[in-house]
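Q: Please design a sequence for this.
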């Protein structure tokens, strides 16, 4: 069965549009070693994993033929690879991932795990000064990521190249979020709409800290 997926990640990235920019007061440091890299749609490696999963059902790995759709790009054929645990996905023995790419794992809302392939060569590691802010606004609770120095230019370049696609926000081999990129993001201030997740849960994933009580829903 071919499963069509529109905007596979429900979260989206947009520019933090405020008249004076986001006030960093009340922000906290992001988790160490966070990095951002594009999701690679249609990577043949996922097809190899799907074949291995179909050959050995005992692995407990589900593989569905799929197509990634967005508002700006042509559909990209791919596979959705999921399992009950990250360990089950790691246990699939196939050829190494191509040079410059890596495998990442995202825990979904139903607590299952999904495998992604990301383009490490096009991504970048967030410098230690990156900050995250949870803020209440008229539209609800917002999650902002505030970039420092050269990361601001790197973010604008990467989001410009990835409009209509998806970026993974990564901590080691875990994809904390896989948001869709709706527009280029200049200025180094990014707003993440968490989609069906909660802003508080996203804040915890990005910082490793509980959200401030004064900002919770």
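A: Design:
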């Amino acid at each position: 069965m071919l499963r069509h997926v529109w905007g596979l990640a429900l979260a989206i990235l947009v520019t933090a549009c405020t008249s004076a920019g986001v006030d960093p007061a009340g922000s906290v440091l992001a988790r160490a070693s966070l990095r951002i890299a594009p999701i690679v749609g249609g990577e043949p490696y996922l097809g190899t994993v799907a074949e291995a999963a179909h050959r050995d059902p005992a692995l407990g790995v589900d593989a569905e033929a799929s197509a990634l759709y967005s508002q700006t790009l042509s559909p990209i054929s791919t596979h959705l690879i999921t399992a009950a645990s990250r360990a089950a996905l790691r246990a699939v023995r196939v050829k190494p991932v191509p040079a410059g790419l890596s495998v990442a794992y995202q825990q979904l809302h139903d607590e299952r795990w999904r495998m992604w392939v990301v383009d490490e060569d096009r991504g970048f590691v967030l410098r230690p000064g990156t900050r995250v802010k949870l803020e209440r606004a008229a539209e609800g609770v917002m999650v902002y990521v505030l970039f420092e120095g050269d990361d601001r230019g790197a973010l604008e370049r990467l989001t410009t190249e990835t409009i209509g696609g998806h970026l993974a926000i990564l901590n080691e081999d875990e994809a904390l979020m896989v948001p869709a990129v709706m527009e280029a993001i200049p200025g180094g201030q990014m707003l993440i709409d968490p989609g069906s997740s909660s802003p508080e849960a996203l804040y915890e994933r990005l910082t490793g800290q509980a959200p401030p009580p004064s900002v919770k829903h």
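Q: Thanks. Anything notable?
A: The helical segments are 44-55, 86-90, 150-161, 199-207. The CA atoms of residues 29 and 171 lie 14 Å apart.
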